[in-house]
Amino acid sequence: MTSFVHVDQPATHPGVARAEAVIDHIRVARRSFDGARGLAALLLAAIVASLLVVADKLMSTWNDGGLLVAWLVLWGVAFAAIAFFAGTARSLAVRALSAMRAAARRRAAARADEQFMAYAKLDPRILRDLQAIASRQEADTVEEPVLAKRSADAATPTLYQAMRRVNLGQHY
To answer: Which one of 77, 128, 132, 168 has the largest count of C-beta atoms within 10 Å of its C-beta?
Structure first.
């Protein structure tokens, strides 16, 4: 008599599936994280705190009979300041963070260019390629001034990008 055993083995381990789900969740959370939100909250808190200090200075000259009214005015000023300055603080934080990120990208590109130039000084092939690029650019600016004006408006490529274009042109 023949009997068959059917063993259903899962294709993935449950622990591995949970770990992959956690890693995917962390990736999604990191992509959706915006540092501008925290900076905006910090700026908003600073603005509201300064307005509350001014309101407290005004309240400290009153007598004790108007203390309840003074506290109501103080909290009214606090809530009005939060409502009034929330959008401004958010846009200021977004601009500040985008400027910091752009500056970091420029510093990284400059650092990569410096490393590339340091390596180029050691390798004569790269120096010849750089000289060829420079001569092509000079020829382009002399022959076609209209293109030079248009390319001046465009972003200047980094050394890495220029060398990559030259190397791709040689092989393909």
So the answer is: 77
